[in-house]
Amino acid sequence: MADAAELKQDLWKKLADSPFVMIGLMDSPEHHIPLTAQLDPDQVDTLFFFIGKDNRLAPGGRAMAHFVSKGHDYFACFDGTAKIDNDFGMIEKLWNRHVEAWFPGGKDDPNLALLRFDIDTAELWETDMSVSGKLKLLFGGTIKGGEEGSHAVVGTTAES
To answer: Which residue numbers delimit the General stress protein FMN-binding split barrel domain (predicted)?
Structure first.
């Protein structure tokens, strides 16, 4: 079983590999939407998203985001605060050709907004089933607690 530190380290690796999350405002009746997280290694507990100024997340506020890794072996739920933070230096740092496809006006597109999501808490799950658990599953045995994976509730996603 992985401890909280290992779960946090795995989180950032998995997010970098597949940076897609569902995110929504907690005080809104509207559904969460899929967005591509922009990761800045210098910003602990923060995800960035390029959105349109008319996006349902633009008003900001309490938000929740959900992540499932590409291999469906890692899950995370983030609680925090979303707000527009159009710091041009950060826009410049995070800008890439994928973002440019959505904003043909480039970094000066009048509809461009950078949404900053500051994570307050996170709940992390990794299905790192033990060898004995995998054998039991393969041969129809009963999986016991502790054999199915790892779980942690953390106040920071910082790796240390």
So the answer is: 8-130
